[in-house]
Every structure is written in C-alpha cells, then in structure tokens.
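Late entry, evening session. Most of the bench is empty. Finally got around to the prediction I had been postponing all week. Sequence below, unchanged from the version circulated by S.P.
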Amino acid sequence: MNLAEKRIAVTGGGGFLGSFLLEALHGRGCANIVAPRRREHDLTTAAGVESFFEQGRPQVLFHLAAVVGGIGANRDNPGRFFYENAIMGIQLIEQARRFEVEKTVVVGTICAYPKFAPVPFREDDLWNGYPEETNAAYGVAKKALLVQCQAYRQQYGMNAIYLLPVNLYGPRDNFDLRSSHVIPALIRKFLEAGSEATCWGDGTPTREFLFVRDAAEGLVMAAERYDGAEPVNLGSGEEIAIKDLAELIARECGYRGRILWDPSQPNGQPRRRLDPSRAWREFGFRAGTPLLEGLRETIAWYRAER
C-alpha cells in the first residue's frame, strides 16, 4: 500500500507514540492526515466516533488512542482503563467497517500476554493464561480488540491488523511520577534525587524496551506490507533486569546517591521479552536503536524540556 496516496486518520496522534507516527507518515510523503484531539471528538462516545469518521472519511485508520499508565496508575484505575480502552476500540473498529475503511491498524499491548507466558513471548501464546493482575483490566480490554478484528475479517472481509508493541520509551514520554512508566520515572527520580532514590519492587523483574521512533516505523511498515489476521509483536528481542536498568539510567543521569528498593510495592510481570521474528518475516521490521543510545537521547530531551 502506498500510504502517500491515502486519506489517513490517526487516533492518539497528540500522544507519545502518535506524535512519532505522524512524523513517520509525513516522511513517507503523506499529506492528507487527520489526528483529532479529544476535545474535538470524544472517542469514548458513539457520537464522537461517528463525527470523527464523518469528518475525516479515512481510507486508512491507525488506532493508537489509549488510557495508559504504569503499575500504580493501572492499580488505581482498573475500571476506567478497562471501559475507556474497550469502548473506544470497539466503536472505532465498527465504524471503520461501516465507512469501508480500506485498512485498519490497531495497536494492542504487551500487557495482554499471560502473566507466566513462556519467554520469549510468541504470538501463539497470547491466549495461554490470564494477564498479570496489576494491568489485567487494560490488557484484556485491548486483547478483545484482536478478537473483534479477526471476527470482522472473517464475517465482513475487513482488512484489520493487530500489532503488539513492547514497552516504549523515548523523548516526549510521560514523566509524571503518578502515571509514568518505568524509564521516564527512573530518569526523573535520578535527576531530581538527593542522596537517596527509592524504586518500586525489588528490581528482579526483566523488561524489554523499544525506542518510540522504531515503534512508529514498525507501524508504518506493517500498514504498507502486512495484511494478515494474526497478531504481530513489535520489539527489540532484548531484556534487562529493572535493577540493571536503574543502575544504567543513574549512571547516565550522573546520579551518585544510593538506590533503595521498596518490596512492598508491586513488581509487575516477572519477565517480559518478545519474539520479534514474525515482524521481520512478514514485513521486514527490526528495531534499530540500541537501548543505551535511546536512553541518552531521552535523558537529553528531558534535561532540555523539564
């Protein structure tokens, strides 16, 4: 698919990943793009979704909009995270069918994987267990959209694809300690800490991270080249223990104080690492930004913006 010739709509275009997706699309020569904000179209309402499609009449839809946060935000807002993510996606995919959108790209979440999925996570293991409890409501809501995409493909012939990006990080991330994910939270803590900085959990879980610019490129490549029913992981295929990540970020931030761990706070899922081979095989995507390089760019951005 030549995206430059299409009318494109992006939900969540004002967000972290969405802003980089817009840059990637502009880099492909795409000029006819709509990326509404919530104040223009509330996508949790039927009226907001319908007005969004009536105004934009997209041929290609990227659905990135989501209500997200780290472990604390998921623990405090399970009902909201379930409802708003589910209702947005279900209504958007239904209207995409009604408006005969040529291609719909739905962004899922690694939180949809079972808590004890075999590592590396393979797409075929997605249904072999329940998600980790602290983010299960969010993960199940997003996983339901995969079922919808596959059901609509089967019944209506709808070309809807579903992608599973791993934990993202990079410039423009959310650095609010009440709702941020682990990398921006650690960066802010270490840049603002005095002689001590306390981190959640015991530092033993592992995580895989994907630089946000690489993720945006993966979305575009999938839109151009992938038309399959099966979900596809987007990741780097590398994992790091949270304790090692904290020490790395502390060093890059110039932090010389003590790092303390609070085991009374949740660890989250024990391990996370994706098998990214399907993305490489189906549409040639491979992450290109090493973790250290991405961290340095993210830290430099936050130093300049804070």
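Two things to note before I forget:
The mean pLDDT is 95.
The CA atoms of residues 190 and 212 lie 22 Å apart.
Will write this up properly tomorrow.
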